[in-house]
Specification:
The chain has about 375 residues and is α/β, with parallel strands linked by helices. It folds into 2 domains: about 190 residues, 3-Layer(aba) Sandwich (Rossmann fold); about 160 residues, Rossmann fold, CATH 3.40.50. Helix content is about 40%, strand content about 20%.
Length: about 375
């Protein structure tokens, strides 16, 4: 089989998902992207890319591509005898061409959010848009893959046939993301480290964590907050924290540096307004880090049974109280971290996920040929 995986380029959880997924596939794969100014073929890290340039991004999620982009991609796939198209969330305008035509079997993996913690009007508008878009896509694809199992019954209620839906979870590289020694720990050896890592975007709600940290410092004098990542709120958050010597913002770091920060931390906090199936939670769990998270996406499922701590009130006081209690309880931190890593080792190996996905490709192609 020859598979075209349509995703972002080096941006977001969908890209991470695809790169890890294809490592375990036995198929010939090309990654088609549409979120940069790049154009044409590129080989990188043993992966073949075909880049469609982006004219304009919308909300850092959707990208407008040049007119005629779909035809350009279609011609490439026909010329190179690709069998199936697998796109990851509705990211690019040229994807509409695959939905309009029936040239290739098409699968979509849903990485987007069904809900956001915002005011009632914004939430209602967003949910209405997502529902209409998903129902339209469902009519024009062979399968929808949900990385969050809870999405399956929701889509069924929307009238999407159950036989079009399949649950295949996100995974985590448990060899790369693992506990171990850290050079960063030496730098912060006299501190108790609270960590956030990921995109700095409205959805991630990092401002709430910063505000809660002021309350933590009143009780834990050697507490340190480290914020790893970049995004459209980086400058705003940098201004908020610039006068606080106990908050470090690193900007972008390599995976190697990130893992050093994770291995140095006491725990992580993710106060997000919305998620689907969070990679950052599972990466932290794989490093035996206790996770404090909003009850969004699949957080309740993967952090259940004492594998993490879920927020209930979403206030700075609640986050501060949990952080203070966790810093003062070494035994709880160790127990939570041990349970967390055991869980991701058992249920979220990329080998299993790649095999499930490959089986789905074969099923879709077999059904098309009947």
């Amino acid at each position: 089989m020859k598979i075209a995986e349509i995703t972002t380029y080096k941006e977001g959880g969908a890209y991470t998902h695809v790169v890890e997924l294809v490592k375990g596939l036995k198929n010939e794969v090309m990654l088609v992207t549409g979120n940069t100014k790049k154009s044409g073929f590129q080989e990188e890290n043993n992966l073949l890319y075909y880049h469609v340039p982006s004219l304009k991004p919308l909300w850092e999620v959707f990208f407008i591509n040049p007119p005629g982009a779909y035809k350009e991609v279609e011609n490439i796939l026909v010329e190179k005898n690709f069998d199936l198209v697998h796109f990851h969330s509705p990211l690019f305008t040229f994807i509409h061409g695959f939905l309009r035509k029936d040239k290739f079997p098409v699968i979509m993996t849903c990485h987007y959010l069904l809900d956001i913690k915002s005011n009632k009007l914004n939430s209602t508008i967003y949910q209405g848009f997502i529902r209409r878009m998903t129902k339209y896509i469902a009519k024009n694809v062979d399968k929808i893959v949900c990385v969050n199992e809870d999405y399956v019954p929701v889509f069924e209620k929307w009238g999407i046939p159950y036989n079009k839906l399949m649950y295949i979870p996100n995974g985590v590289d448990t060899k790369k993301f693992s506990p171990g020694k850290s050079k960063i720990k030496e730098k912060y050896k006299d501190h108790r480290i609270i960590l956030y890592f990921g995109r700095l975007h409205y959805q991630k709600n990092v401002e709430l964590l910063i505000n809660s940290f002021q309350l933590v410092k009143q009780k834990i004098k050697n507490a340190k907050l480290i914020i790893v990542g970049t995004g459209n709120q980086f400058d705003k958050l940098k201004n908020m924290t610039s006068k606080n010597p106990d908050i470090d913002m690193t900007g972008f770091v390599s995976d190697e540096e990130l893992i050093n920060y994770m291995r140095a931390a006491d725990f992580v906090v993710f106060p997000s307004r919305g998620e689907n199936a969070s990679f950052t939670i599972m990466e932290a769990m794989a490093c035996k880090l206790p996770v404090i998270s909003s009850d969004v996406g699949n957080a309740k499922k993967i952090l259940g049974d004492n594998r993490g701590i879920l927020l209930k009130e979403y206030t700075k006081e609640e986050i501060a109280d949990i952080c203070i209690n966790l810093i003062n309880d070494d035994e709880s931190r160790k127990k939570i971290g041990d349970e967390a890593r055991d869980y991701v080792l058992k249920y979220h190996s990329w080998d299993k996920i790649s095999k499930q996905t490959e089986d789905l490709y074969k099923q879709v192609l077999d059904n098309r040929q009947k």
